[in-house]
Amino acid sequence: MANTRARPRIPTVAWHEVRPAPVVLVTGPETVLAERTVQRLRDAMTAADPSLEVHDLDASAAAPGDLATVASPSLFGEPRLVRVASVERMTDAFLAEALSYLQSPADDAVVVLRHGGGVRGKKLLDAIRGGAGSGIEVACAEVKRDSDRLEFAAAEFRAAGKRISPAALRLLASAFQADLAELASACRQLIADVRGDITESTVETYYTGRIETNAFAVADAALAGRRGEALLLLRHAIAAGADPVPIVAAIASKLRTVAKVFDARGNGAAVARELGLAPWQVDRARRDAAGWQAEGLGRCIIALADADEKVKGAARDPQFAVEQLVGLIASRGDL
């Protein structure tokens, strides 16, 4: 009778939960998360034993015996951390040696294999994921969502034992939403420079000139009910030269999508087909609609039409008109 047991699977852990294991497979395209993973691992191993030896190996240029040389026990038995880069471009010699190494990993050694993506090395990855080498995997997917940036920044401050207010955290993530490396650098600067808790005013003081805002960031904060953040982003946008007209247009686009899905029932794909939207738009709009009541949504739609008219010439102060609209939306239409 054929053996139908499923192949063992290795644990998959988040980058900020990495721990020593004989083999640590770090996969995915997000370089910042991969670097943080390896640094956390090194810090943990150094804290456990300051005599840690660290070796680096480039898999794309490795010759036969290179892995065995850096992973083999040292004269005095110090623990070893072997950081292997470019596994997605590994040589045939490294592939053969790594597959052999998995059968009997060296004692007191942690071998980190950094694979940035692609099909090269699939045989090695499958072997590790199947349980050979008793490893773990850290998947470093590209950070695209606001929630992922918030989680990244929050983990940075937690690791440093530094407290930051939720509003300050959101503002910081918004300030560097285009570049995770710059967000990481900003977190490190605040951790190093600021004594005590980090507040919204702290972030604003440090990064007033760097708060990268746009019409949709204002709309996102307002629809999520974050009034202070939405108004702050709006003022930064206008101070940077943004025109109130596209800001109102962006708010209108998101608010109308919320209105479309407000009473829609069924799974996201079916609703998306019915309304002519992408499934992710439906999912996002449903999250935005959480906490809204029909009466408040109706008031906001009426106010939106009024603001649109005002920013297009019907009022002397279009900025004030947008601020009123943003405040009303952030309060879910509660007058």
What is the name of the CATH class of the largest domain?
Alpha Beta
Helix content: 40-55%
The end-to-end span amounts to: 72 Å
The general outline is elongated
Mean pLDDT score, rounded?
87
Structure characteristics:
54% helix, 15 helices, Rossmann fold, 335 residues, disordered N terminus, alpha/beta, Zinc Finger, Delta Prime, domain 3
Q: Could you please describe the fold and organization of this structure?
A:
The chain is α/β, with parallel strands linked by helices and 335 residues long. The protein has three domains: 12-139, Rossmann fold, CATH 3.40.50; 143-212, Helicase, Ruva Protein, domain 3 (Orthogonal Bundle), CATH 1.10.8; 214-335, Zinc Finger, Delta Prime, domain 3, CATH 1.20.272.10. Helices cover 54% and strands 9% of the residues. Mean pLDDT is 87; it is low at 1-6.
Give a concise summary.
The chain has 335 residues and is an alpha/beta fold.
List the helices and strands and how they pair.
Elements: E1 12-13, E2 23-27, H1 31-48, E3 53-58, H2 66-71, E4 80-85, H3 92-102, E5 109-115, H4 122-129, E6 136-139, H5 146-159, H6 166-175, H7 180-193, H8 200-207, H9 215-223, H10 227-239, H11 244-261, H12 268-275, H13 279-289, H14 294-314, H15 318-330
Parallel strand pairs: 1-6, 2-5, 2-6, 3-4, 4-5
